[in-house]
Amino acid sequence: MSHRILMVCLGNICRSPIAEGVMKYRAEEAGLDIFVDSAGTSGWHEGELPDRRSIEIMRAFDLDITDQRSRPVRQSDFEDFDLILAMDRSNYDNLIDMAATTDQKDKVKMILAYSNSGLPANVPDPYYGGDDGFRNVYLMIDEAIVAIVNDLSTN
Ligand code: 4NP
Questions:
Q1: Substitution candidate for ligand 1 out of 7, 8, 9 with most atoms within 8 A of CB
Q2: Residue range(s) defining the domain that contains residue 115
Q3: Is residue 42 within 8 Å of 8, Cβ to Cβ?
Q4: How many CB atoms lie within 10 A of CB 8?
Q5: What residues line ligand 1, using a CB cutoff of 6 Å?
Q6: What is the Å distance from ligand 1's center to 1 Cα?
Q7: Which long-range contacts (CB under 8 A, 24 or more apart) does 21-29 make?
Q8: By three-state DSSP, how is residue 67 classified?
Q9: What CATH number is attached to the domain comprising 35?
Q10: What is the pLDDT of residues 132-149, one digit of tens each?
Q11: What is the pLDDT of residues 64-112, one digit of tens each?
Q12: Given this model, what pLDDT does residue 1 score?
């Protein structure tokens, strides 16, 4: 079975590009056919590369995300994807507001709901912080994605 997953944050330059890159890598590693994309609830950075600090933390793990460009979430995403993963509660609320039907709303989940704690915590916005924030974001996202890929592999 193939899957289509959309990663969503506010700007689509810091967190969701990391989530897109990690999901592509973990899916390939697991031999799963998953189409992955990312988008922002805002269009503030449309057309831009990921933040330099996101590119750097991914490069530290041997992953290249410089093919990515920021784009806003669009209405068709709610039909084109079967799982839409929000990085934080504010992204989640905005996505739920945008979704037109109950089926579409059901596709929206908090990414960290898949982590060990099971608590739907936020991936903190690292934009105004230091480089450390990006490493934490990477580690939180990777933990959740390993769990998601594991779920998809066994179900
Ligand atoms: P992201 O981070 O949502 O993880 O891409 C942000 C990027 C830009 C802004 C806020 C958060 N901004 O205010 O421009």
A1: 9
A2: 3-154
A3: no
A4: 28
A5: 9-15, 44, 125, 127
A6: 33
A7: 21/58, 21/63, 21/64, 21/65, 21/68, 22/58, 22/63, 22/138, 22/141, 22/142, 22/145, 23/145, 23/148, 23/149, 25/63, 26/142, 26/145, 26/146, 26/149, 27/149, 29/149
A8: coil
A9: 3.40.50.2300
A10: 899 999 999 999 999 999
A11: 999 999 999 999 999 999 999 999 999 999 999 999 999 999 999 999 9
A12: 64
C-alpha 16 – ligand 1 centre gap (Å): 10
Number of structural domains found in the chain: 1
What is the 108 CA–ligand 1 centroid distance (Å)? 20
Catalytic residues: 9, 15, 125
**Residue 34 near residue 65 (C-beta atoms within 8 A):** no
In this prediction, residue 54 has a pLDDT band, given cuts at 50, 70 and 90, of very high
Residue located via tokens 């450390």: 132
Buried b (16+ CB within 10 A) or exposed e, 44-59: ebeeebbbebbbebbe
